[in-house]
C-alpha cells in the first residue's frame, strides 16, 4: 500500500514515486517469496501462464490471483536490470585493463604473449594410457599420438553459437473464428443465356486467380517474419561453468573478455568450439587477435 499527500488537487508527496522505485503498468512490488516462486522456480523453467497457475494454487488464490501478464512484466524487468548491471560491470572491467568497450586491447602487446599451452606430465599420460588399454584392449602404442595432452585445469573450453528464433506476435488471430464469420451464399443458378463452354472457360481462370492470391499471401507472410538473434556462450573450466548471452556476436565476446579478466583466466589456453559459421570465426579471431594461446575447433 502506498500513501500520498494532496494539496489543492496536486500530489505533493507520493511514496510510490519518492520512496519506492517506479514500476510499469503490470508490475508490482515483490516480496522475496514472490521472487522465488515467479523467477527462480517459475518463469526460468515454465511458461508465464503455467507459473501464474502454480503460484495462485500455492497461495490459494484461484479467483483474484496474480495474472500471467504480471509474471511476464516482472521477469522481463528483472532480466533488463540484470543485463544493464552486467553491461556496466563489463565496461568498467575492460576500461581498467586497457581494453576498449568493443573488446580491443590497447595496452602493451607483450602482456599476453608469454602464455602457451600447458600439457600433462608424462607419468600422468602413461597412467591414463594404461587404464584405456586395459579397458578396451587396444594393442597400438597410444603414446605416439601426435596430438598433445593439454592440462584441463589450464584450459578454458567455450562453446559459442548464434541462436535465431522467430519473433512472436503480441496477439494471434484464430483462423477458425474468421472462417465461422464468413457467410456462404447459396449457389446461384447459372445464366440460361450462358452456354456450357463459356461456363467451363471461367473455371480455370478462377483457379489460377486463387493460386496467384495464395502465392502472394505466402510471399507477404515470409516478408513479415522477423527473427531475434541471440549469441550464447558456455564457459567451462575446472568443473566450473558459466553462461553468457546477449544480442550481437561482438558485444557478447566483449562481455566474455571482461569475464575472463575478472576470473583471472587469461593465463589459460582458450579453446572455442563452434560450427562452420564463417562470420563467427572471423569475429573470434578479430576480438582475440591480441591473445595467441587460442584455438578454434
Question: Summed up, what is this model?
Answer:
The protein is an alpha/beta fold and 297 residues long. The chain is built from nine helices and seven strands.
Q: How would you characterize the overall build of this protein?
A:
- The strands form two sheets. This protein has a five-stranded mixed beta sheet with strand order 5-4-3-6-7, covered by helices on one side.
- Helix 8 (249-262) crosses helix 9.
- Among the domains are: 4-96, no CATH class; 122-166 and 228-296, Nucleotidyltransferase, domain 5 (2-Layer Sandwich).
- The chain is 44% helix and 16% strand.
- It has nine helices and seven strands; from the N terminus they run ββαααααβααββαβαβ.
- The chain is an alpha/beta fold and 297 residues long.
- Mean pLDDT is 77; it is low at 182-190 and 192-200.
Amino acid at each position: 500500500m502506498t500513501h500520498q499527500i494532496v494539496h489543492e488537487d496536486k500530489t505533493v508527496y507520493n511514496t510510490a514515486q519518492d520512496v519506492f522505485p517506479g514500476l510499469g503498468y503490470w508490475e508490482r512490488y515483490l516480496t522475496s517469496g514472490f521472487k522465488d516462486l515467479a523467477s527462480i522456480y517459475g518463469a526460468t523453467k515454465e511458461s508465464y501462464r503455467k507459473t501464474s497457475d502454480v503460484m495462485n494454487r500455492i497461495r490459494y488464490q484461484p479467483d483474484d490471483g496474480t495474472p500471467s501478464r504480471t509474471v511476464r512484466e516482472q521477469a522481463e524487468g528483472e532480466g533488463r536490470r540484470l543485463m544493464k548491471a552486467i553491461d556496466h560491470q563489463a565496461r568498467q572491467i575492460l576500461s581498467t585493463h586497457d581494453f576498449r568497450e568493443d573488446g580491443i586491447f590497447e595496452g602493451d602487446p607483450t602482456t599476453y604473449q608469454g602464455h602457451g599451452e600447458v600439457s600433462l606430465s608424462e607419468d600422468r599420460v602413461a597412467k591414463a594410457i594404461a587404464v584405456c588399454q586395459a579397458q578396451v584392449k587396444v594393442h597400438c602404442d597410444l603414446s605416439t599420438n601426435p596430438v598433445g595432452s593439454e592440462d584441463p585445469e589450464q584450459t578454458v573450453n567455450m562453446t559459442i553459437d548464434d541462436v535465431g528464433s522467430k519473433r512472436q506476435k503480441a496477439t494471434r488471430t484464430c483462423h477458425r473464428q474468421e472462417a465461422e464469420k464468413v457467410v456462404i451464399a447459396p449457389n446461384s443458378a447459372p445464366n440460361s443465356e450462358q452456354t456450357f463452354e463459356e461456363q467451363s472457360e471461367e473455371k480455370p481462370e478462377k483457379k489460377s486467380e486463387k493460386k496467384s492470391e495464395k502465392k502472394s499471401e505466402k510471399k507477404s507472410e515470409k516478408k513479415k517474419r522477423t527473427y531475434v538473434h541471440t549469441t550464447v556462450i558456455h564457459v567451462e573450466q575446472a568443473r566450473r561453468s558459466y553462461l553468457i548471452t546477449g544480442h550481437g556476436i561482438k558485444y557478447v565476446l566483449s562481455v566474455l573478455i571482461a569475464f575472463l579478466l575478472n576470473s583471472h583466466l587469461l593465463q589459460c589456453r582458450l579453446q572455442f568450439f563452434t560450427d562452420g559459421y564463417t562470420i563467427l570465426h572471423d569475429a573470434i579471431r578479430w576480438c582475440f587477435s591480441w591473445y595467441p594461446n587460442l584455438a578454434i575447433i
